[in-house]
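Progress note, sequence design subtask.
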């Protein structure tokens, strides 16, 4: 009898952490599964720390370790390829000419940047979701910083978590040359955030001179300008950089799968995170829709990964499955260099203390203990290295 084969599509928080959790179980030899992780990139991205790349507080290897590094001690096969579809009848994942068979499947493909169909958006607005996005932004910033331009004019579309965190980091990097503004369609930034975090964010934006355009919509982006509609009037302003943080879209191949979908295009899952009528297929993270509308955050994905891994083990070993219940541990925001806010579990912190707490929480959440040690040592050595370099 062959070993059960678990295929995981997507190496983000949901997919990678499911694979790592599966490795921790005390399997009997006959039941230990073969695990294949599929992703089109060769690296994982710890997205909450991606902002630190802008200010060079962290390096790419810390934020985006390769799967080869993370999985080198575990029996997980990594395949770098683009998934095209899944055939649930044949139990295969189709990747071009290649087909990968499975006994159990986890679809955790994540999402892509959601662009709207407006002139110039896709051509000139920069997303900020991947390592390549962050590195591309840094290249653009270096070009502007070495130019003769007196001011660096940056517009961030979207007043949610990503937009606010980006704005603060960019303001700290650009200094006196920076002219930043956030454009949001609503009447409030961080509308769903705890009040404490919202107020701290507003203070951080005001302290950095970041302007917020409320009730404003983008109508067009060009190579050096941005057109905005406010109360029916359209105004065009100069912009050296436009960053787009307007939500997450589901990959077209996920929407086209011959599996039950919710009205929003996500895969319809039950309380155990199994796709309806397909008990051997799980969906997690941004592509999954349960009865509760959960935020698309790393916190949710990591908790789902734990339950998914447990339930995969339950199916293989004929043990009861667990329902997923999200436990909100709170929220953290980075608000520039050495500044953050933290709200949750009865705690409310801001400033440098919150910055340190956020770093320690995320250090603990890094995917493997080896990577935690490497990053932690680097954080300890960095201040000394900077002192000696003076």
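Output:
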């Amino acid at each position: 009898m062959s070993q059960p084969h678990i295929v995981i599509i997507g190496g983000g928080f949901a997919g990678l952490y499911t694979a790592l959790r599966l490795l921790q179980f005390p399997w009997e030899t006959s039941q230990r599964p073969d695990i294949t992780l599929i992703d089109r990139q060769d690296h994982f991205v710890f997205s909450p720390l991606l902002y630190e790349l802008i200010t060079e507080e962290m390096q790419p290897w810390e934020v985006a370790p390769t799967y080869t590094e993370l999985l080198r001690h575990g029996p997980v096969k990594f395949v770098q390829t683009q998934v095209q579809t899944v055939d649930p009848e044949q139990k295969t994942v189709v990747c071009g000419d290649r087909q990968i068979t499975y006994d159990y499947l986890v679809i955790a493909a994540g999402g892509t940047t959601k662009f709207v169909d407006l002139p110039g958006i896709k051509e000139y607005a920069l997303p900020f979701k991947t390592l390549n996005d962050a590195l591309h932004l840094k290249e653009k910033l270096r070009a502007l910083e070495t130019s003769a331009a007196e001011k660096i004019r940056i517009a961030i579309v979207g007043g949610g978590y990503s937009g606010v965190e980006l704005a603060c980091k960019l303001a700290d990097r650009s200094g006196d040359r920076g002219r930043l503004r956030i454009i949001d369609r609503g009447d409030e930034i961080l509308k769903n955030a705890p009040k404490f975090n919202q107020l701290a964010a507003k203070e951080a934006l005001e302290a950095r001179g970041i302007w917020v355009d409320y009730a404003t919509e983008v109508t067009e982006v060009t190579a050096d300008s941005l057109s905005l509609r406010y109360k029916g009037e359209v105004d065009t302003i100069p912009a050296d950089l436009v960053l787009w943080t307007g939500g997450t879209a589901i990959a077209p191949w996920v929407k086209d799968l011959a599996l039950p979908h919710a009205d929003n295009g996500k895969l319809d899952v039950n309380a155990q995170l199994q796709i309806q009528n397909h008990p051997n297929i799980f969906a997690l993270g941004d592509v999954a829709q349960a009865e509760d509308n959960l935020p698309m955050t790393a916190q949710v994905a990591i908790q789902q990964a734990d339950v998914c891994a447990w339930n995969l083990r339950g199916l293989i070993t004929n043990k009861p499955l667990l329902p997923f219940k999200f436990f909100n541990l709170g929220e953290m925001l980075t608000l520039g260099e050495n500044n953050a806010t933290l709200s949750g579990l009865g705690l409310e912190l801001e400033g440098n203390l919150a910055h340190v707490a956020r770093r320690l929480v995320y250090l603990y959440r890094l995917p493997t203990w080896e990577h935690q040690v490497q990053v932690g040592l680097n954080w300890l050595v960095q201040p000394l290295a900077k002192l000696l370099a003076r």
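The chain has three domains: 5-40+81-112+248-317, 113-244, 331-389. Work on this subtask will continue into the next period as scheduled.
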